[in-house]
Amino acid sequence: MGTNVLPEIRINQTGYMTALPVFVGVLSEKSLQVKDSKGNVIIEKNDIKPELDASSGDNVALVNLGMLAEGEYTLVSGECERKITVSDKAYDAVTGALIKGLYFQRCGCGLKEEHAGIYAHPACHTAECTDWEDRSIKKKVLGGWHDAGDYGKYVGPGAVTVAHMLYAHKLFPAGCTDNLNIPESGNGVPDILNEARYELEWMLKMQKDDGSFYHKLTKDHFAPFIMPETDTDPEYLIPPSHCATEAAIACLALGSRIYKEYDADFSEKMFAAALKGWEWVEKNPEFKPFMGPREVRTGGYGDLSDKDERFWAACELFACTGEEKYKEAAEKTYELAKDPKEAEKIREMIPEPMRRFFDKIKPGLDLTQYGWMDVSGLGSICCLFEIGEKGGSILYDEVKRIFLEKTGKLPEVCRESGYGTALKEDQYVWGSILTVMSNAMSMILNRMLTGNDEMLEYAANQFNYALGLNALDISFVTGFGERRVMFPHHRPSGADNIEEPVPGLISGGPNKKMTYPETKEKLGEDTPPAKYFRDETPSADTNEIAIYWNSPTIFVGAYLNSLQ
Ligand SMILES: [Zn+2]
Predict the structure, then answer these.
(1) CB 541 within 8 A of CB 365
(2) 12 vs 214, 460, 462, 467, CA distance in Å?
(3) How far apart are CA 397 and CA 383, in angstroms?
(4) Would you place residue 356 in the very low, low, confident or very high pLDDT band (cuts 50, 70, 90)?
(5) Helix pair 191-205, 242-258: axis angle to 10 deg
(6) What's phi and psi for 95, nearest 5 deg?
(7) pLDDT single digits (tens) 518-554
């Protein structure tokens, strides 16, 4: 086998669970043997028929080996040999590491050696920040997580990250690995909630006296690849937006329910902030898209509609209070989003050359989206698993019907992919891992509603994708897998002079839609979408990390881990 040729067997390099069937990818027509640790052949597959996978250009067969008992196995196909492990707790460590990955993103505090090991560093971003619009306002707004590869802190992306974690805890507490050796470990609160609280405390500080939330707290430019504690240029509170405010309301309302049993004061503080935020929304009902100051060149996270955020916020407040007015607000927003004129209004806001990237704007909320740009799916989770039948004909019956209809099509997407990946050929975009993990979330939620085991198998296969069963033979999670991402676009990992990147962070993955010129130059036009990836530090377009890519992966990991 030449050095540039990838192995003909693709596996989840972290391992497989005894509770789930083992899927592997085979790229040769030779037979596949599975040997146990004593060398006995326990499975032999002679009917392997690789087929062309359009996304990767590979001829590949996804082979189901069924459930295997705990142990180590060797897979043999022709010249290729690979070891896999199967255990009850295969996903415990990686799920925990993904949660702890957020600890490593903490801002405003030092990371001590006892928790962070070789990745310890002094406190960062501890100076007062300035209100961009009113420079006389100076405040200390410490805390929160660095958003991604950069050191900015953004309310909307933070809110969805926290929500994924809180719902993972709510729905599958047993799968949320505990005792992560973070500063709060052992305080009687699950560590996933300890970690999420670090962001929630910061979010509370981002609320203005009028109830709105600042959109973000960043400098006016991205830092070079330096450690966070040496990034000392001034930070600014960037003007509030509808989307940030409504996402914060939703997240804090959800938080107020989750933390009630652990800390009643904290819970009430979050609930009061959510109500105050909603009052601002009632006084300022007309949506204005976020247009950051021209001079500020950090992440925009601008959004063309706030119907999804408002829907989610109203659902969470209804779940907290049972008050009719929030139910009506959620229903009204949901119905208004169906109006084709509203969708057209959004399209018209997009400058012409960009419109082709937004061809998906269709009337109605997409109830299966959980990312920062479209949070409608978080509203779905609230409706289906928190509000329940009290939601009535729209928030329960209709949401459930549409959610099941839409998520019911996902196994077909997986079947069309040679690797069983829940991505279509044209969905390898910036941060494609979000779509993979969102679709896994959808299939998990579908299975919880229907009991359909096919959903479980395909959801698990998205975790396999993240951990190595893919066209690149690479594990996208730092610190996990024999062939793993080593050069993520992540400032501390690039600046700390440590060979291994900070562990527990997931890369955005292949992207052939909005790529950097350097990426195009290296990979050319002919490289297929599923291979449009560079494990190189400068490649933010394919290899950045982000808190809101970790979090849906935590949700999926927690669910699978809960099956042990
Ligand atoms: Zn910082």
Answers:
(1) no
(2) 41, 10, 10, 5
(3) 10
(4) low
(5) 140
(6) -65, -45
(7) 999 999 999 999 999 999 999 999 999 999 999 999 9
> Residue range 98-122: average pLDDT?
98
Separation of CA 149 and ligand 1 centre (Å): 12
Distance 366 CA to ligand 1 centre (A): 34
CB–CB of 278/338 below 8 Å?
no
Residue 228 CA to ligand 1 centre (angstroms): 5
Estimate to the nearest angstrom the gap between the alpha carbon of 19 and the chain centroid.
24
Return mean pLDDT, the chain. 96
Q: How far is the CA of 168 from the centre of ligand 1 (A)?
A: 26
Tell whether the model's pLDDT for residue 472 goes beyond 80. yes
Question: What percent of the chain is predicted at pLDDT more than 90?
Answer: 92
Ligand 1 centroid to Cα of residue 106, in Å, is 7
CA of 163 to the centre of ligand 1 (A): 22
pLDDT over 70, % of the chain: 98
Cα 140 to ligand 1 centre (Å):
13
The CA-atom distances, in angstroms, between 302 and each of 206, 242, 452 are 17, 10, 37
**Alpha carbon distances (Å) from 332 to 107, 250, 375:** 38, 17, 17
Residue of 228, 121, 113 whose CA lies nearest to 181: 113
Q: Please tell me the distance between residue 144's alpha carbon and the centre of ligand 1 in angstroms.
A: 8
Q: In terms of Cα–Cα distance, which of 505, 507, 525 is closest to 515? A: 525
* Of residues 420, 416, 402, the one with CA closest to residue 338: 402
SS3 state at 515: coil
Residue 536 Cα to ligand 1 midpoint, Å, equals: 23
Distance of CA 150 from the midpoint of ligand 1 (Å): 9
CA torsion through residues 159, 162, 166, 168, sign:
positive
Global confidence as pTM = 0.97
Segment 224-275, tens digit of pLDDT? 999 999 999 999 999 999 999 999 999 999 999 999 999 999 999 999 999 9
Nearest to 559 by CA among 91, 221, 62: 91
Cα 151 to ligand 1 centre (Å): 6
CA 108 / ligand 1 centre spacing (Å): 5
**Residue 436 pLDDT greater than 50, yes or no:** yes
Residue 553 Cα to ligand 1 middle (Å): 23
Distance CA 500, CA 485 (A): 9
CA of 79 from ligand 1 middle (Å) equals 49
3-state secondary structure (DSSP) of residue 492: helix
CA–centroid distance, 269 to ligand 1, in Å, is 25
Instruction: Give residue 530's region: left, alpha or beta (phi > 0; psi -120 to 50).
Output: alpha
Q: What's the 170 CA to ligand 1 centre distance in angstroms?
A: 29
